[in-house]
From TrEMBL:
Keyword Transport belongs to the record: no
Domain of life (superkingdom): Bacteria
Protein name: SusD/RagB family nutrient-binding outer membrane lipoprotein
InterPro entries, per the entry: SusD-like_2 (IPR041662), TPR-like_helical_dom_sf (IPR011990)
N-terminal signal peptide: none
Pfam families: SusD-like_2 (PF12771)
Lineage: Bacteria, Pseudomonadati, Bacteroidota, Chitinophagia, Chitinophagales
Length: 466
């Protein structure tokens, strides 16, 4: 994975060189270099998605707000909702738009010209994945004009509703390209997610279609039943088992550590397990607890009270365990367990508790298997869970999805959409509500003023309807 790190540096050098070596040529657009191959563009894009977005500020912030992790600091601002436009600058200004979406656009332009179907499929899938992340946290964002520099220096903002339509179009196109004959030049080791396996990329595209369909169960103009039908149809072609999980692996060497290792190592803001999450696992006698969290100095499991200003000795608190936080731990972008939880919820919506129960149980088992929990212990836990009913079905499904989605960016989306898990405000909150969105970044507010920038973190995005 050290080569993965070098590739990131190399692409930046190549793109920079593409602009600088012809600095005096006004007809050369440094945002559109034409001499960088797809094999050089793809690796650093995937690394940026994994390390700087899913495992970066987005993932860390979600884990704090959803009370899975806590900051062992005297003033834990991030987990108490102290978020300002400058805090989200990097995610927008350096990662999602230029390093991911623009580079994917360049890659797809090259692939389209050369007839490289595989890179088209991967590019469209990753484009949809990251555009969804942007619209989910900010609402209306640039899309249709976002990649038209330098002609359009101040792109308009597209509605979230139109972006969600675009996501499905992108994924349908990805599925088409993934099914085309193999190209003369196809991805292999330069693809850190699936190593060029297009059958798996096709499954991921279907999985994301289901994720995005179910996101709209309460969106204006949509019904839960219709979205459930669409999700179930997509899932019929999505992940079949844990071998289909979309992951990025890390070797753990210098400059090649998992982002959650870097996020939780000593000195990384004093990151520890949150009391809310630990207590939920403890109260349910969940066999995943010792795999997810380390023991405290007394041999038990203790999470930090969210928002507390006291700073206990870190040894009395549980840390994130090695499955998720080792230097060589994989980063999960989408999992079979998530696919089954989506299926369980969609089945519950369409067919009721009895039909959803075996799917719900299979989803729990899939996550247990991913963590390599003993089979008997896993089954005993599943048997101990409350039966799904018309009254508790969504709650039970989402609570278990919350556990299986530990450190996932999806837990925040599910909380906004369903209200689960039912979270209390942390101590000493900066605002008296859990934010429904992020503020727009300061760089964007200055460079491209828009009416949308007037929203506050209390305002809901389009699909987050009451």
């Amino acid at each position: 994975m050290r080569r993965l790190y070098i590739a990131t540096i190399f692409l930046g050098t190549v793109l920079l060189g593409s602009g600088c070596k012809k600095f005096l040529d006004v007809n050369q657009d440094p945002n559109n270099p034409m001499d960088v191959s797809e094999k050089l563009i793809l690796p650093p894009v995937e690394v940026t998605v994994s390390t700087q977005v899913v495992g970066g500020y987005n993932g860390v912030n979600n884990a704090y707000w959803m009370q899975q992790l806590s900051q062992n600091q005297p003033s834990p601002g991030q987990e108490t909702f102290r978020i300002f436009p400058v805090d989200v600058d990097n995610t927008w200004t350096y990662y999602i738009y230029p390093n991911i979406l623009n580079n994917l656009r360049l890659m797809m332009n090259q692939a389209r010209t050369a007839g490289h179907n595989e890179y088209m499929a991967i590019g469209k899938t990753l484009y949809a994945f990251n555009l969804a992340i942007a619209t989910d946290v900010w609402g209306n964002v640039p899309s249709s004009e976002a990649m038209k520099l330098p002609e359009v220096s101040r792109p308009k903002y597209d509605s979230q509703e139109s972006i969600y339509q675009q996501l499905q179009v992108l994924l349908d196109s990805a599925i088409y390209y993934a099914g085309q004959p193999k190209s003369a030049i196809a991805p292999g080791t330069d693809d850190y997610i699936y190593q060029g396996n297009m059958a798996k990329w096709k499954k991921l595209a279907y999985m994301l279609k289901a994720r995005f369909y179910l996101r709209l169960t309460k969106a204006p103009g949509h019904t839960a039943a219709a979205q459930a039908d669409l999700a179930l149809a997509a899932l019929a072609n999505a992940f079949a088992d844990n071998s289909d999980n979309a992951t990025v692996s890390y070797t753990g060497g210098a400059q090649a550590e998992s982002p959650w290792f870097k996020n939780t190592e000593p000195g990384a803001g004093g990151v520890v397990m949150n009391k809310t999450f630990i207590d939920f696992l403890k109260n349910n006698n969940d066999p995943r607890l010792p795999i997810i969290a380390t023991k405290d100095v007394d041999g038990g499991y203790t999470g930090r009270v969210p928002g507390a200003t006291t700073i206990p000795d870190p040894t009395v608190l549980s840390q994130v365990n090695s499955f998720y936080a080792a230097a060589d731990a994989p980063l999960f972008l989408a999992t079979y367990a998530e696919a089954l939880f989506i299926k369980a919820e969609a089945t519950f919506i369409k067919s009721g508790a009895a039909a959803a129960t075996p799917v719900y149980q299979a989803a729990i088992k899939a996550h247990m298997d991913m963590l390599k929990v003993d089979g008997a212990a896993a089954q005993a836990y599943i048997n101990s869970r409350p039966a799904l009913t018309a009254a508790n079905g969504i709650k039970e499904i989402i609570y278990e999805k919350y556990v299986a989605g530990f450190l996932s960016i999806e837990t925040y989306n599910d909380w906004r959409r369903t209200g689960y898990p039912e979270l209390q405000l942390p101590e000493n909150p900066f605002v008296n509500y859990i934010p429904r969105r992020w503020p727009y970044p300061s760089n964007e507010i200055l460079a491209n003023p828009q009416p949308d920038h007037k929203v506050t973190t209390a305002d809901r995005v389009w699909w987050d309807a009451k």
